[in-house]
Amino acid sequence: MNAVHPLPVPLSRFRLPPLPGLLEQIMDKGLRARQRRSRVMSEQGASLNALKVIDTQIEHCIVALSLDPAEAERLLLARIDDAEAHTAGLLPACVFMRCALAIQCHGKDLPSWFDTYLGEHPDDVRDALLFCPVPASLLEERNDHILPLMRRQPLSRLSLFAELIGRLTVQEVRGNLLAAQRANPQLAPVHLALLRLGICNARSEAFVRHALAQGTADQQMQALQWVGMSGQRSLYQVGEQLLHSPYAPVQSLAWALHSLDQPTRAVESVLVLGVATGDGLHTSPGKGPLPEAIGWRVLALCGHLKGLMAACHRMASQTGPVTAPQMDLLLLLLGQVPPALRRKPNRTESRQQALRELVLQSFRQAFVPLQNGADTAPWTLPAWVSDAQRAANLRMRTGRPLNHALQVKAFPAVFGELSQSLRQWLYFERAYATQSPYSIDPGEVARRQYGGAMLVGFAGELQGGDPSAAPH
User: Tell me, what's the pLDDT at 202?
Assistant: First the structure.
């Protein structure tokens, strides 16, 4: 006779074993992971693979703490009240963990915690609402904790809830957002939220044009984000006047759009400004300088061989290992970074030889006709290739010629190793190439970014490699 197996016990009935200090150790691990995430987000340099490690630690700790929510709440409240936590900078992480625990456990006290901490710790409360509840799989993502909070909040918090509604795709309130758009036509988060829900209308386009022409720096940044995520090519040149904005986030987004819409002009401009020559970047009098990191991202996204050769000349002649923006360029254009270019101390001969071998290998794989003396030639395109005029128009992506089909079929294999800033540009490229919205944020929880990339790859496999199969 077959044994009768009992039904699985609901997760809420499990409790951690009574091991002294176990829950506190889990909590401390989660708080440290949250602090690391806040730090790497502010630096904009974390790869998606690194972010996944941090986010997984946070998720595991939240789930573990939810097994004994009463004791976890007691420990967190004690830590929040502890003056030492304030001086050690732990308070924001404690606030995040307390709100995340309330969401994970469907706590009835979530609205009170929301009201208590939102004023002083808005980023931590928002991130907890975006992070949780932690799903068992990508197909079990939930957003049912947003609507009850939204119904009891004043209009002064509309911007926050618009962001949450858009990023968590709460389709039930599309009508509310459209009404808010009519009542507040200059409120950028509402336009971004509607775009994330798949709504691009004339009111949003009017806001974008107005903000780019005469809006504040924050409005300009969000307007550029809207253009980049929407894929509406008719608006890309509207933001060209912001290429020399003194506000770095605005300038970076403007160059991203310019690189997608006018890649040849963008590369020529960056090379004139000296990004790959080591001469220092400069612009016309009265205009802000171009940060070097932005210049390297332009060369990486556009992929022109002229830009690649200038970048390699710079890397071969510098002392020390390659920088983070240079690693992004090598990964996106050639698909790898040789160990000799990463290690410290860094021998000049080994670095130059490894870089030359990588470029030669990539050119041969891409069927770029080489000169006989390319293995010793200086870092200029005519000295390397036999048809410099044809090669000047060739663009590279992970060691292959870049074309429309490659742009829309999938994100590159090295996608997880690229920095947060360059991932933002690649998300814009996806929207531009398909002329349809792609609204994943580069600071989003890692599981959602990987989920979006997986869906892009799946759609690309269904469409095949024919450029005409790309959605328009």
Answer: 95
Helices (H) and strands (E) in the chain, counts: 25, 2
Cβ 420 vs Cβ 443: under 8 Å? yes
Q: What would the two tokens of residue 352 be?
A: 């130059």
The identity of residue 349, as a single letter, is E
Q: Which two tokens stand for residue 52?
A: 């996944």
**CA nearest to 26, candidates 116, 97, 128:** 97
- With beta carbons less than 8 A apart as the criterion, state whether 276 and 247 touch: no
DSSP state of 397: E
- Do 223 and 188 contact (CB within 8 A), yes or no? yes
Asked if 292 and 281 count as a contact pair (C-beta separation under 8 A), the reply is yes
Distances in Å between the Cα of 56 and the Cα atoms of 64, 152, 419 are: 12, 32, 18
- The DSSP code sequence of 225-239 is HHHHHHT-GGGGGGG
Phi-psi region of 435 (alpha: psi -120 to 50; beta: other; left: phi over 0): left
Residue whose token pair is 């890397």: 315
Tens digit of each residue's pLDDT (9 = 90 or more) over 267-309 = 999 999 876 655 444 443 334 478 999 999 999 999 999 999 9
Whether omega for the bond prior to residue 437 falls within 30 degrees of 0, making it cis, is no
SS3 at position 181:
helix
Q: What is residue 7's predicted lDDT score, i.e. its pLDDT?
A: 41
* pLDDT attached to residue 245: 93
- The angle subtended at Cα 114 by Cα 111 and Cα 116, nearest 5°, is 110
Please state at what angle helix 292-302 crosses helix 248-261, rounded to 10 degrees. 20
Which phi and psi angles does 443 have, rounded to 5°? -95, 5
Cβ-contact 162, 175 below 8 angstroms: no
What are 238's strand-pairing partners?
none
> What is the rounded CA–CA span in Å between residue 445 and residue 296?
26
User: pTM for this one?
Assistant: 0.90
Taking 70 as the pLDDT cut, the residues of the chain under it are 1-20, 83, 85, 152-156, 275-288, 464-472
Amino acid at 285: P
Q: Are 105 and 54 in contact (CB under 8 A)?
A: no
- How much is the pLDDT for 278? 52
